Amino acid sequence: MLAMATFLSRFLGELKRRKVIRVGASYAIAAWLLLQVAEVTFEPLHIPEWAMTMLVLLAILGFPVSLVLAWAFDITPAGVERDRGSAAGEEREEVSPDPSIAVLAFDDMSPEGDQEYFCDGIAEEILNRLVRIDRLRVVARTSSFRFKGQNVDVGDIARELKVSTVLEGSVRKTGNRLRVTTQLINARDGYHLWSESYDRELEDVFAIQEEIAASVAEALKVKLVELPAQRYATSNVEAYEFYLKGLYYFHRWGLTNVRFAVDMFTRAVELDPDSAQC
Questions:
Q1: Using one digit for the tens of pLDDT, what is the confidence trace for 72-100?
Q2: Which residue range forms the structural domain that includes residue 176?
Q3: Is 185 helix (H, G, I), strand (E, B) or coil?
Q4: Model pTM?
Q5: How far is CA 49 from each of CA 32, 37, 39, 59, 135, rounded to the nearest angstrom?
Q6: Same domain, 191 and 270
Q7: What angle do CA 208, 212, 218 make, to 5 degrees?
Q8: 6 and 100 housed in the same domain
Q9: Do both 170 and 65 map to the same domain?
């Protein structure tokens, strides 16, 4: 459904850009006025009835012709020219000097299905680390996470977000065990550039995030900028879970959600007063 909605949105945008809608509306108004004048003047001028019928048919047949011409041609100061704007724009988008990536919200594969906050948090933390990669354009969280829970083709997502690669994954959390699976997909052909599964203890969640960012950098042949040691919200895993819960509800907006987010951040700070971001 989203793919169809995206297609319709693009199509309507192209109709507006090529002034097809404006031409169609102008033609309809002009044809209606012409027929009104003809209805009033043909009889006094003793013009045959078949002429009115012919005029109506010509007006009807001319409507789709005007739309096709508006789609194919554009009026410029140099005269009427074939519209090449869309094709040129597509070529410009395809030829990008820097790689680009969208990090999708990770799927919750936990037995209870109650770890959505943790999945979102892991994906967001990985996104924040990918921003550190030199020359890599990273789509904002609000743009990439809006596809969460929707069965949309990766190629459609990439075209919508104008990126060359997409990182998707899943998280399965059972007790103190964590399984994170990620795939880096080439949007052009849909093939995997890299994939990996991490079966670790919950305490290794920070190392997993760094390893994924480094693997993406290696797969895209770009350089992970050397910065001072990455500071996390906290090194306390229990406090970190409260922190991720806070982020999850904060992004959902609404007064109740924001209050709950503040409560989660507060509990994280209580567990680790030296938190870097809480």
A1: 776 544 445 555 444 444 444 444 557 88
A2: 96-229
A3: strand
A4: 0.55
A5: 18, 14, 10, 16, 71
A6: no
A7: 145
A8: no
A9: no
